[in-house]
Amino acid sequence: MIIMDKKAVRSSIKAIKRTLTAEQKVASEFAVIEKIEQLQQFRSAQNILLYYSLPDELPTVDMLERWSKVKNIYLPRVKGDDLEILKYDKNTLQTGAFNISEPAGEDVVSPEVPDLVIVPAVAFDKRGNRVGRGKGYYDRLLAGVNAFKIGVCYSFQVIDDFEPEVHDVPVDMVVCDF
Question: What number of H helices and E strands is found in the chain?
Answer without folding.
Answer: 5, 12
